[in-house]
Amino acid sequence: MITAPLAAATPTPDPDEERRRIQTARLLAYRDDGPLVHALAGRIGKGIPPVPATLVALLAVVAVTVTGVLKPGPILLLPPLIVLLLVLPTAPRDHLGRLDWLTPPLLRGAEFLTIIAVGLAADVPKWLLFVLVYVVGYHTYDTVYRTRQSIWPPAWVFHAGLGWELRLLIIGIGAALGVLTPVLAVLTAYLFVLFAVESVTSWVRLDKASAQAGADAEQDLEASPEDAMEQATGEAEKG
User: Fold this and answer.
1) CA 158, chain centre distance (Å)
2) CA 94 to CA 224: how far, in whole Å?
């Protein structure tokens, strides 16, 4: 007896594996790694545990700041290099450890503290430092809010935003060369336009799609039985 071949069963995704995948994707998005980290992550190997390394980087920047080491000149490149050298090797990790959720806030704290410490030592206007911290903070909040609703920002935004590593390197080099104020002004304006325009256009696009979906659903509900029957008959005849 000849029987019809059985259709290949679609493998059911493992719920635990899917949860781990989403957790990793979210934490990596919250880190806000840029093109330099992505270019070097594959060459580092397995990497080092992210929480201890990021915590050490934060404490090291605090120590350098409170000891009064930071003075105008090349020494201002030190805090960005500390963060870069300690945190960059953590990028290849899957961030699935029990405390790995602490990595993004520790990293953001290290970035913000470095910006403020270097900026104050270079005598940059305080309002400019505040605006830059606000812009990066808004980008972080927007990323968290979107991913919690399963709306992922496009990958190009993280590269165009330079990532924490290139932002700190640009600030450190500008401070070491004594031109931090104009560098910071250009960087802040660029990031503000990038993050604001991308965020607004994405949310407007989402609102339009949601409104269109709601209008279509409402139209379907308001359609009379005769219209529905006529539409179904027409589709059947076309088929």
Assistant:
1) 6
2) 54
Evaluate whether 47 touches 89 at the Cβ level (below 8 Å).
yes
- Separation CA 58–CA 178 (nearest Å): 24
96 falls in which pLDDT band (50, 70, 90)? Answer: confident
Q: What is the pLDDT of residues 156-176, one digit of tens each?
A: 999 999 999 999 999 999 999
Tokens of 64: 């350098």
Task: For residue 34, report the phi and psi dihedrals to the nearest 5 degrees.
Answer: -105, -165
Do residues 46 and 98 make contact, with C-beta atoms less than 8 angstroms apart?
no
How far is CA 29 from each of CA 18, 80, 209, 222, rounded to the nearest angstrom?
A: 16, 21, 24, 42
176 CB-near residues (< 8 Å, 6+ apart): 73, 74, 75, 76, 77
Enumerate residues 6+ apart whose C-beta is below 8 A from 99: 51
**Residue 18 pLDDT exceeds 80:** no
- Burial classification of residue 20, based on how many CB atoms lie within 10 Å of its CB (0-12 exposed, 13-18 middle, 19 or more buried): middle
Scan for tokens 């709601």, then name that residue: 214
CB atoms within 10 A of CB 225: 7
Which two structure tokens, joined as six digits, stand for 113?
A: 């503290």
Name the percent of the chain lying above pLDDT 90: 59
Percent of residues in the chain assigned helix, strand, coil, to nearest 5: 75, 0, 25
Higher pLDDT, residue 170 or 145: 170
